């Protein structure tokens, strides 16, 4: 029987209307930094690697900008979005995962991936109850094509330009937290105070493939506006999956070196046999990828960074090029679940510690 999975989205693509495909392959007409938000309903069938997800409906929240396009004084769909998500997180005791998708992903694919993570990345709470997270996909205008060289270059440029929109979304999220805290302190009644008090559940961030390049540009945009000493740690776990990023990104402040300041831990899942990244490396003229061997010099990365080698558990169907293990391989999904459950890196079942104390290998199945 088909299952209905509700997911949320933010999207800086061109709106196309109230029917499929909803959003296109170009930027929002007001600029690449502008985005809309809402939620979608995905129909799910099957299980495991055989599971299928199809986006059925999309509800884009109304958005009215402030005078002159300024965020101040605006009636923002993001306010409705954050309020609804916070209410559900509190009432249903669920975490939130924000997904930054990769190359060649259409809007519908992004929301379908979000639904997949909702079902697969369940979170074991301290009460021993397992709950699905709420998942929000930030969809930037990847063009949905995997082969042409020009498409890859175009997506990479669009991912970079989307960094400002992702940063803007991040700032609105932080502003919402701040406004809620102020409203709770200023409340005149216990009921109002409880209505606005901080949510005890956690936020996580996951970037896959070229979504890591978009994340780098978002981090640099955040630094440009906030400086290096005022970066709020709003995320609990940050997952970098099969990252189409430079192998030295985590040790360079002009790349992702300051990313750990935005969270409590950064987990880098990588595989030297990731063929999609081989193509990126060899044919797209990029240097060695972070998603191949993890950070090139682990000792120069922040102490919050952990690298997880997936080379023995990366294979799915041939068309996936060993690049989709984060959502299809049960061993990797189990590893992520353990992290979400709060286990320390050395406590996660199925891992073998490598030569560096923050490098691990997911063991061969049955070994």
Question: Can you offer a commentary on this structure?
Answer:
The chain is built from 10 helices and 15 strands. It has 367 residues and is of the alpha/beta class. The chain has one domain (3-362). A hairpin with a 7-residue loop joins strand 2 (13-15) and strand 3. Helix 4 (163-186) crosses helix 6. The radius of gyration is 20 Å and the shape is globular. The relative contact order is 0.11.
Approximate shape? globular
Secondary structure tally: strands: 15
Low-confidence stretches at least 5 residues in length (pLDDT < 50)?
A: none
Helix content: 25-40%
Order of strands side by side in the largest beta sheet?
Answer: 5-4-1-9-6-10-11-12-13-15-14
Q: Report the radius of gyration as a whole number of Å.
A: 20 Å
Structural class: alpha/beta
**SSE sequence, one letter per element:** EEEEEHEHEEEHHHEHEEHHEHHEE
For the record, the count of structural domains works out to 1
Span between N and C termini? 35 Å
Mean pLDDT: 90
Please give the largest β-sheet.
Answer: 11 strands, mixed
Q: Beta-sheet strand percentage?
A: 15-25%
Number of helices: 10
Secondary structure: elements and pairs:
Layout: E1 3-11, E2 13-15, E3 23-27, E4 36-45, E5 52-60, H1 77-92, E6 96-100, H2 107-120, E7 123-124, E8 130-131, E9 134-139, H3 149-161, H4 163-186, H5 190-196, E10 203-208, H6 211-226, E11 235-241, E12 263-270, H7 275-282, H8 290-293, E13 305-309, H9 325-328, H10 330-340, E14 351-353, E15 359-362
Parallel strand pairs: 1-9, 6-9, 6-10, 10-11, 11-12, 12-13, 13-15
Antiparallel strand pairs: 1-4, 2-3, 4-5, 7-8, 14-15
Helix pairs in contact: 1-4, 3-6, 4-5, 4-6
